[in-house]
Design goal:
Length: 154
């Protein structure tokens, strides 16, 4: 079910992106687009990685930006950041296109995503996890290759 859902999100996102962002794309080029996407998506689908959900959410979000569906765009783009932090940059870049329309909605959608754990678990536990994550971010130094090697050996 997980793999099928990931494939569904990426394929529907790609279809919507093609329809809303690339409306003049010919049938043959659309076929090439889907074929290339399938080749790139197959390893992630085979491994059951979350990358299909991230890429599909980004495609859905950018298509919603093109269609000026601001709340949908904010939800999809914030979803990228909920799954992994770095894809949230796609949403921030999309805010450059329409800062007044998208940025406040993206902040609200991201806030909802960070608040959801409080509904699923005790607040003390969630705060402890967030504090631990912040501590990891403060001490994570990827600029020193020898530190990375030491971390792997530890």
């Amino acid at each position: 079910l997980w793999r099928a859902a990931g494939v569904a999100v990426i394929l529907t996102g790609l279809r919507r992106f093609r329809r809303d962002v690339l409306p003049g794309l010919s049938e043959s080029r659309t076929g090439v687009l889907f074929a290339v996407a399938a080749v790139l998506a197959l390893p992630a689908a085979n491994n059951g990685q979350v990358n299909l959900f991230i890429a599909g959410s980004a495609l859905h979000g950018l298509a919603a930006v093109a269609g000026k569906r601001w709340w949908a765009a904010a939800g999809w783009l914030a979803g990228c950041g909920w799954l992994k932090v770095y894809p949230f940059a796609v949403g921030l870049l999309a805010c450059l296109i329409a800062p007044r329309q998208l940025a406040p909605r993206l902040v609200v959608a991201a806030g909802v995503g960070f608040a959801v754990p409080f509904a699923c678990q005790g607040p003390g536990y969630v705060w402890a996890e967030y504090r631990e994550f912040a501590g990891v971010l403060r001490t994570d130094d990827r600029t020193d290759p020898s530190a990375q090697q030491r971390a792997v050996l530890d």
